[in-house]
Write a structure and sequence with these properties.
single chain, 167 residues, alpha+beta, D-amino Acid Aminotransferase, Chain A, domain 2, five-stranded mixed β-sheet, two-stranded antiparallel sheet, 4 helices
């Protein structure tokens, strides 16, 4: 947590401190808890668990940043016919989860292999995470017409601009 005596600002300071601590301990990412000790999010990602075929995630009541990628993954998951529950994620649920993954602008859909060196499920990307991840990539690469309104094509050509002197 950010030291209360620090003169600092910005939403990501706690995340940066958590990530630095995790990396110093030999891990790739940090998991943060909310004020009640429930799972919150990664240092820059939203968290999802999979248990018994149901995708579980939390919401703003659990100290998370409500991400666009999170919303897209929830919609994709439901469109795939996979149930989604939004509720508290208890810390002990992580070790018994069948699968877990992060979502975020940079993370996209990233499987979580292990936490504190303890495997999640098989210790590999699970089948539900794989389905969601494959659909997500298909959507963002424009191969899914049903999601075309989510995309804003950017021209690939470089515009040529001529500079002129005023007057």
């Amino acid at each position: 947590m950010m030291p209360t005596t620090a003169k600092a600002c910005g939403q990501y300071i706690n995340s940066i401190l958590a990530l630095r601590e995790a990396v110093s301990e030999g891990f790739d990412e940090a998991l943060l808890l909310d004020l009640n000790g429930n799972l919150s999010e990664g240092a820059g990602e939203n968290l999802f668990l999979v248990k018994d075929g149901i995708v579980l995630t939390n919401d703003e009541r659990h100290s998370i940043l409500m991400g666009v990628t999170r919303d897209a993954v929830i919609a994709i998951t439901r469109d795939l016919g996979i149930p989604v529950e939004v509720r508290d994620l208890r810390l002990e649920e992580l070790s018994s989860a069948d699968e877990a993954f992060f979502t975020g602008t940079a993370a996209e859909v990233t499987p979580i292999r292990a936490v504190d060196d303890k495997p999640i499920g098989s210790g590999k990307r699970g089948p539900i995470t794989e389905r969601i991840q494959e659909k997500f990539f298909s959507v963002v690469y424009g191969r899914e017409p049903a999601y075309s309104t989510w995309l804003h094509p950017v021209p690939t050509g470089i515009a040529q601009v001529g500079l002129t002197e005023p007057g």
